[in-house]
């Protein structure tokens, strides 16, 4: 009995193997392995396809339903005119009436039109106040046409606002958190017109780097050619300059699939040697390729303290003297001891280790980096914001 069961299992296994070998092979999406760490990035993250971009649209509208936090119609005359025009289109004559409502606010509506979006799709919109409204919380945007730079209407926005900021005030104090005069409407705009052009109409495939660099452009082309040699047995990419990499269209490949597979290829982008310092916040950002030639640095703080302690001088009893204030000033100077340290290194870790050994504050590090740059020992670009 057991031998019969074993034979049946062997036969079923051979049948399953034969059906798997006979089944047609389905081409899988070629995805290069993503290497964690080491500064590796996908091509889709460092470059974008030329011609595939967003378009900005804008419109003017009214927000209603506010709880007395809208525009003052006497101060914002454009809000009153817009309200009168809207009511006139609805058959209500208010030209001779004095409107006193505070539940309406004039707003600007902005949105980004994604590439190759179809009619009937929905996108998010941002709504910002134009007049003296104090808050848009609880308001509803009335239907607002959104136009592009060519003057054509591409979308229409309408819906309740989502406002994260709020404002509350009393007789002697006011509390404001966030921006209550700006909000968003998720999926608040309906696409009415498609942008002319399609992906298949692109004259050529060009990847444009977000951070132009000759070495990065060369590495992108090399990664694409290595992929193409295994897939098409020929090279299809060549760097045009430090910003763009041109691709030749394979005849036996669907373009969206080609772009998808190329976008998942990984490279290690090269970054310029740059040090960015922000003196307002004390932020120091040091790039990976920053190097400092061997240099000796010492840094000490000089503190001068001036203390005023005036004294009152009283005259003797039964004398004709007057009470006077005698100034008393104390001046003290103290200079902290600075350690002489040797900075220099061929990589970022050595540089950071040397700065940490000195034990300085961010403002002191900024001063030292500026002095090292002046001395010619900082082999990088110093950007001061």
From TrEMBL:
The keyword Signal applies. The lineage of its organism: Bacteria, Pseudomonadati, Pseudomonadota, Alphaproteobacteria, Hyphomicrobiales. PANTHER family: FLAGELLAR P-RING PERIPLASMIC PROTEIN FLGI, FLAGELLAR P-RING PROTEIN. It holds the Pfam family FlgI. Residues 1-22 form the signal peptide. This is Flagellar P-ring protein. GO terms for molecular function: structural molecule activity. One of its GO terms (biological process) is bacterial-type flagellum-dependent cell motility. It comes from the Bacteria. Its main location: other. It is found in: Bacterial flagellum basal body. The basal body constitutes a major portion of the flagellar organelle and consists of four rings (L,P,S, and M) mounted on a central rod. Belongs to the FlgI family. GO terms for cellular component: bacterial-type flagellum basal body, distal rod, P ring; outer membrane-bounded periplasmic space. Assembles around the rod to form the L-ring and probably protects the motor/basal body from shearing forces during rotation.
